[in-house]
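Record 1 of the preview.
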Amino acid sequence: MSEEILINVTPPETRVAVIENGVAQEIIIERTAKRGIVGNIYKGKVCRVLPGMQAAFVDAGLERAAFLHASDIHTEDEQKSDQIADLVREGGEIIVQVVKDPLGTKGARLTTNISIPSRYMVFMPNVNNVGVSQKIEDEAERLRLRDILTRFAEENGINAGFIARTAAEGVSESALQTDMRFLLRLWGGIKERAVSAPHRELIHEDLPLALRALRDLINPEVEKIRVDSRSTWEKAQRFALKYIPDHRSSIEYYPGERPLFDLYGVEDEIQKALE
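->
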């Protein structure tokens, strides 16, 4: 099975298509004016506590106050109360991550259980366990990955959690450790910014779609990644050099006059789906 990833960039939107044996299998669209905020981390301020709903509203600098339920608040003490009034106080500052975009009149949904993805891992600073993606089914590989993650955490005195993503399957121990060190540095930078930032401040933003596609969609079956924007291709090259050097040569700039999605029949697939 051969796969290709197409990245089509225009000012209003970025579109990514995953092509398997010449057929479009997945299409992802991100509009520039309505880019999602899921994954973003903010320093917010609790503006209202609602004991009857076991929830609070947080001012994170977004258009509307965001919603934080008591069940989405991390507490280190297992015996601690799960009542919202005991977990947060009005006017208190809080580090939160968006788990659901605003919709209609509803504000964003938040959590304090931070999770930060990289190429092979998801880092969870507020939990203390390791896990492996359910999509990795081989039991020996699951044990290998769990052992690598556990040893790394123990040897470095890390009191936090890692989950091996599907892309981690078959990856060398040194590459996995490099990824984990990157996440630790990234989290260190987020914590530093959180200390000095005023409330209502964005302190970490997830990657734009084109780079998320490189991080999340590339696997050993992907033979080619074609990008029709020169500036996005240059960003993709820099990203690949740092995080996925083995795939850098597969990322091609497509300068052709015929639109990239037309070339592969993706526009027709989109039209059929819309009909």
